[in-house]
Structures are given as structure tokens and as C-alpha cells.
Amino acid sequence: MRTNVNGEWREADIWPGASLLTLLRDAFGLTGSKNACEQGECGSCSVWLDGELVCACLVLAAQAHDRQVRTVESVADGQRMSAVQDAFVEAGAVQCGFCTPGFVVAVTHLLAQDPNPNEVQVREALSGNICRCTGYAKILDAVTLAASRLREDR
Amino acid sequence: MRSEMDVYVPRTLDEALQQKSAHPDAISLAGGTDVMVEINFGRLRPAGIIDLTRIPELREWRREDSHLFLGAGVTYSRIVRELADFVPLVQASRSVGSPQIRNRGTVGGNLGTASPAGDALPVLAAYDAEVVLQNRRGTRSLPWHTFLQGPKKTAMAPDELIRGTRWQVVNGPGSFSKIGTRNAMVIAVAGLCLQVDQDARQVRVALGSVGPTILRAPEAERFIAERLTWDDPGAPVTDEVVAEFAELVGRAAKPIDDVRGTARYRVHGCTVLAGRALRWALEERKAFKWL
After folding, report:
1. Which of A103, B83, B240, B248 has its CA 20 to 30 A from that of A40?
2. What is the predicted pLDDT for the residue at B290?
3. How far is B66 from chain A (nearest CA, A)?
4. Residue A36, min C-alpha distance to chain B (Å)
């Protein structure tokens, strides 16, 4: 099967029952998307499939055949972190870090749709991502910080 | 454990129906929010998988005279964006999982999985919807209660696909509500849809997560239909009537104790949801001045 990942067409020969997450991690070596719950509960494998936010663990790899996948690896510009990534570091929104890639993808998606979300909208947009360390307060701070910087840049 | 498995990726409905006919033991896969969990955990090893996400016909919804046809592959995110007139359906859709889940999950998937906790199912029951099934020879429509036979059991034949669901568009207020430990990512402990049908002079109530399949509350429905002043939406309804209606809805539940809640709590939950849903509907009836 072949899939466009972060702008590049890639091919793999994998077990037909494998998920998109397995394809990304095991076949393509893109380990930014984390494998945690494997049931769509935790959001740590969040990626874009044809521009839509999805859990890669719930997509059969074959369903991504001939489609566009974008992962957390595409968020930074080379060695330069994105505004969302910077904000996570500065706000102290990263503790153990396992959920961070999923949150970065979900927050990047949210701010691309809505540059000025209120807290309720942020909470709803991030309701599919679980963090067991921060208690979420600092993640919400990071979203506010990233949103204000992105608005300044416009 | 890995096993032999064939994956079919049909691009048209005809192709999918032919594949389902040739491989009746292959499982249909839409958004994957139920099926992929079973595969990831090794609990499901189908001989084949038919991917239904590339079939344009399944992703359509349309008005058909006084009915709405909703294709099996329309996702919950799209329902929230595109079907705002169908308030209980939108409320149920928005309560499904998380944004990631709503971008993938479909009403067809809820029907195929046939879990009593499927959030869209009480809404379809309160709409008196039918389920449209199709195989190579043609289509057939079954009332929702004939299609849903029990927990994870449906009347679908092995060579059939769920084409979609159809219901008569109802004139009147309605709502969906559910009980769980948080607003997102909740498998309902109890779920309820109440729909007033002004034209048929009915109040239809359906319950989820409190029985082997979706349940209606016929006694409660008869009771309230007789007590509403149908020609005068502003006519007061006493607290006693609301309470008795709620009590009758609670009695229609047939719950069990499980990890998410006790049977007693679920009956209580249905009673509370029913009273609230009726109050909301009565307020809306007043405001909209249906006549």
C-alpha cells in the first residue's frame, strides 16, 4: 500500500489488520504518534487524515491507502519549533511528555480552525486527549499563549 | 496473534455489494471506532475486511419528500455541521466520544455494532426510523426495532450492507440527553431521547444503555399524550403529571448492574432525564407556538 505522509509518498507491505498507527511507527519509523490505549480513548496518536483530526489507532492502515496523512513530525519547521510547541515548553505544559505529541496536533488543528477560541471551545476540542500529569491547567495556558502569538504573527 | 486476512477497498456501492456477496464472512468497516478496537486487542480476527469509507453513495444524506434519508457513512461531525434541524440527533452526535471519534464514527456503525449504548440509536427509535439494508439483489427496509435484535445482534444477513436509515421528519420539539462521568468520551450509563410529534399527537421516548437493546416507553407515551392539550401549546402541565410521566419512563427501563452503574441508579437516571426532557419540550412548545 502507499500513503502520502507529511508530503511524501511512501510504500509499505504490512499485515492487513494493522492500524495506521502501526504503519506510521513500525513501517515508517515515525514514532512521534504514541501508542497508548489502542482504543481511541487517549488521543496520543492523533494525526490528520485528509486534513481531519483522527486517532491513528482506529484507522485501518488500508483506509489510508492513497490518502494524505500528516503527523506531529510535520509540525516543526526543521529544527524550529512551532508556536504551539514553544508555548507548551514555556507554559510548563509538558511533564512526562507522552501525551504531548497528540496534544500538539490537536491544538495545532484547533488554532488553524479558530484563532481565538474561548476556554469552553478549547476544552471541547481537547476532550479526546488525556494527560495524566499536568491536570490540564498548564495545557490550557499553553493554548492561550500559542493563540495570542499566532494572532500577533498574522 | 496475526492471521490471514483479506482487505477489500471498493470504490463504488456495486463493487462493495459484490464483494460482500462473494465474501459473506468479511466484516464491514466504516470509521473503525468499534471494529478497530476489537482488532487491536486481538478479539476479532475476521477472514476479511471490506472498507466502506470510499463509497460516495454511503456518505450522502437527502430529503425524500417528508422523509430524511441518512447514509450509513455520514460521520457524527458531519451530522453536527449539516443537519442542525434534527436537534436530538445533533445533540446525540455531539455527545459521541471526542472530536477524533466524531470525525470517524458513523450512524451506520452504531447500527452495525448494535450496542444498547450506541448514542444515535435512541434518537432513531424516537424518530421511528427504518434501517435500509442492501445486497446484490436489492434493498429492504426494517423498522428499527426489528433490525435491532439484542446486544450486538441485528437482523442483517451476511451478504447485506447497511445502506442507511430513513425517518419521517417530525414536527415538534425534542432532545437527547445522557448520563456519564464526564461530558466527553462517555459510554452512557443511561441515555434518553424524547421527541414530540405535533402532527401525530405523540410524545415518543426511547432509552439507551438500560436494557439488552433500545427500549421505548409505551405506557409513559400513552399517559402523556392523553394529558397534553394538543391544540394549546401554552396550556399548563402540572408537576404531578411530569413526575408521573417520569416515573413511568423509569419503569420501562430493564437495566442490569455493570461496571458503569447499578440497575437501580439507571432507573433513577431515566426518571430524572425523562422529567427534564419533558420540561424542555413543554417550554419549547410554548415558545414555538405550534398549532
Report:
1. B83
2. 52
3. 33
4. 12
A2-73 has which fold? Ubiquitin-like (UB roll) (3.10.20)
A20, three cell numbers: 495506521
C-beta atoms of B104 and A46 within 8 A: no
Mean pLDDT of A21-30: 98
> Is the Cβ of A16 closer than 8 Å to some Cβ of chain B?
yes
Is the pLDDT confidence value at B289 over 60?
Answer: no
User: Of residues B224 and A1, which shows the higher confidence score?
Assistant: B224
- The ipTM of this complex is 0.97
Q: What is the pLDDT averaged over residues A76-92? A: 97
pTM for the full predicted model: 0.96
Domains, chain B, ordered by start: 6-51 (3.30.43.10), 57-168 (3.30.465.10), 174-288 (3.30.390.50)
**Residue A15 near chain B (CB below 8 Å):** yes
> Do the chains contact at B7 and A128, CB–CB below 8 Å?
no
* Torsion angles phi and psi, residue A134, rounded to 5: -75, -25
- Burial class from Cβ neighbours inside 10 Å (0-12, 13-18, 19+) for residue A7 reads exposed
Q: How far apart are CA B93 and CA B102, in angstroms?
A: 7
